Amino acid sequence: MSEEEEEQKVQQLTLLEQNLQNTSLQKQSFHLQLLELESAIKELEDSPEAYKIVANIMIKGNKEQLKKELVEKKDIVELRIKSLEKQEAKLREKANELQKEVLGNFEKKR
After folding, report:
1. 20 Cβ partners below 8 Å, 6+ apart?
2. Is the confidence at residue 108, as pLDDT, over 90?
3. Deepest of 21, 35, 36, 81, by most Cβ within 10 A of its Cβ?
4. What is the pLDDT of residues 50-67, one digit of tens each?
């Protein structure tokens, strides 16, 4: 493997690691959203009345409709988390393969 090819592999590895980090941050953000939604659903179940913020104004809303909206948002966030987990696993697998290849070539040169 030429010097140029090795450098490209190292750059690919760096890019994969950056993508992994970005994916992990996105997943963390969605986990926080999920916790907030679960908390809101629980609070809504324990509350006699329900309010919704629309354009910086709090208005009284239909409790069942609000719960339905929150559950739908929760389902979407859970799907996004699963998707990011799959993407993260694929990126990690590619990064590990590339890292082994780069390290293997480095060891051969020594």
Report:
1. 88, 91, 92, 95
2. no
3. 81
4. 999 889 999 999 999 999
